[in-house]
């Protein structure tokens, strides 16, 4: 009889613990997480290795997308270097490969060879992609990002572009966007440590 009572009490305690745990506020990412994830329009871009990339190349992996260009003096090389440092940690919390795409917003100067030299320096998980403005602009705009187009004939110019990072899930859908921090006197870059924490929560909650 006592064993039965102990068993009943133990079961009640477990059930109560589960109820209390489920009623507690669960941690949420600080990033903007799309619920449900958003479909991406069909696209065809050029990879730095010379081959085409389409929506299919985003499936089966987690992909971080951001805009940049090889002549960028500050935000782009900083973001690439930060990604290189934190990529092993990002990969450790995911059960799928983790890739990084730098979308060149300077097709006039960023040839495939130039993109290849730039992105492969950071590692094999990095890919540079490009397209002419007629295909590039709608793709970037569809990600919720932007960039400026230089006047015709300009040679020495800067390209204004978004510093946010878009996360695409293994089904090739836009899953989240990480906004950059706006601190006076500092570059508007994404907080990589916060992004790592958010990514871990996102992967734990993800079901394909």
UniProtKB/TrEMBL annotation:
The keyword Cell wall biogenesis/degradation does not apply. The keyword Disulfide bond applies. Keywords: Copper, Disulfide bond, Metal-binding. Pfam families: SCO1-SenC (PF02630). It comes from the Bacteria. GO terms for molecular function: metal ion binding. Residues 34-201 form the Thioredoxin domain. Belongs to the SCO1/2 family. This is SCO family protein. The lineage of its organism: Bacteria, Pseudomonadati, Pseudomonadota, Gammaproteobacteria, Alteromonadales.
